[in-house]
Amino acid sequence: MRILLLGGSKSGKSGLAQELSSMLASGGRKIYWATMEPVDGEDEARIEKHIEDRLGMGFETIECGKSLLARADEAEGATVLFDSVTAYLANEMFGGGFDENAPERAAGELLELSLSCDNFVCVCDELFRGGEDHEGLTEDYVRGLAMICRTLAAHFDTVCEVVCGVPHTVKGSLDPLGITAGTA
Amino acid sequence: MELILGGAFQGKLTYASEKYGLSGEALCDLVTGLPDAGTKCVYHLEAFTKQAAKKGLTALEALELLMPVSRFCAVVSREIGNGIVPMAAFEREWRELHGAVLKELASRAERVTRIFCGIPEVLK
């Protein structure tokens, strides 16, 4: 099963993704695919918090924020929690000088990675409804991120908006996991 | 009239064009002008409300320029109110006017649909 989870910051995306991944894996291998490349103490603290949250939940960790396919074989047959599309695109687009082709490449790599796993739970920030006038490269980034989300949404089984940790399903369902609206 | 909402780049106009089979002059981009007799769908409502806010119009005065909205199959608008309340006074005025215009349009619409990642969800 492939699931896309979108939500605002601190909406409970990662927590819900961990819960869904554990249910999908049902005792099998599960991998936390971390994409954040820390740039300051605030990032390091956030990573520490996420690692702490996952302690004891049985996740292996792959830290890879760029060129995903180089490590796709490690995820074969596992349930993968991919966190997050937001950071991954930023790395691909701005990590080594601006790359305008990054969104298309990232969408393709994410789809390919998702197909090599048993289950794929993918987290992305929903930052399209603030009305900000983004300038230049930020506008390109937001447009690219939206394109990736639309692409994944078209291919994945289930798409949810996460609202304070509760999934609001806009495509497919979480019924196979025993989750119906409002009961997560 | 169907009011079609959603964040930036979610596929709102594609949805409207495909659903109602619209192209060319049936579509009016409010960034560049106002609808005429042949218009079946207006889009970029947020650009229209921004101009209206610059002119100091009220929601009803702004809506008057689009009336009657029942002639449209669809009105397409970006949602802009989910960010932090902006520091700049004009940005706040724009969001306030935009919200008021949307609420009025939603009450007149037969259907209100939100597009999320290209996926429609009927709200009304």
* Biggest sheet architecture of chain A: 7 strands, mixed
Number of domains of chain A: 1
Number of DSSP helices of chain B? 4
* Secondary structure: helix percent of chain A: 25-40%
CATH superfamily of chain A: P-loop containing nucleotide triphosphate hydrolases
Average the pLDDT over all residues of chain B and give the rounded result: 94
Architecture (CATH level 2) name of chain B: 3-Layer(aba) Sandwich
Shape of chain A: globular
Discrete helix count of chain A: 5
**Do you know the CATH topology of chain A?**
Rossmann fold
Oligomer: heterodimer
Q: TL;DR of this structure?
A:
The complex is a heterodimer of chains A (184) and B (124). Chain A is α/β, with parallel strands linked by helices and 184 residues long.
Q: What do these coordinates show?
A:
The complex is a heterodimer of chains A (184) and B (124). Chain A has 184 residues and is of the alpha/beta class. Chain A has helices at 13-25, 41-54, 85-94, 102-116, 136-155; strands spanning 2-7, 30-34, 60-63, 79-83, 119-125, 158-163, 166-171. Chain A has one domain (2-131, 173-177): P-loop containing nucleotide triphosphate hydrolases (Rossmann fold, 3-Layer(aba) Sandwich). Chain A is built from 5 helices and 7 strands; from the N terminus they run βαβαββααβαββ. In chain A, strand 6 (158-163) and strand 7 (166-171) form a beta hairpin. In chain A, helix 3 packs across helix 5 (136-155) and helix 4 (102-116) packs parallel to helix 5 (136-155). The longest helix of chain A is centred in the C-terminal third of the chain and has 20 residues, at 136-155. Chain B has 124 residues and is of the alpha/beta class. In chain B, 36% of the residues lie in helices and 21% in strands. Chain B has a 6-stranded mixed β-sheet, with helices on both faces. In chain B, a hairpin with a 2-residue loop joins strand 5 (111-116) and strand 6. The A-B interface holds A 4, 6, 8, 126, 128-132, 142-143, 146-147, 149-150, 152-154, 159, 161, 170-171 and B 6-11, 46, 78-84, 91, 94-95, 98, 116-119, 121.
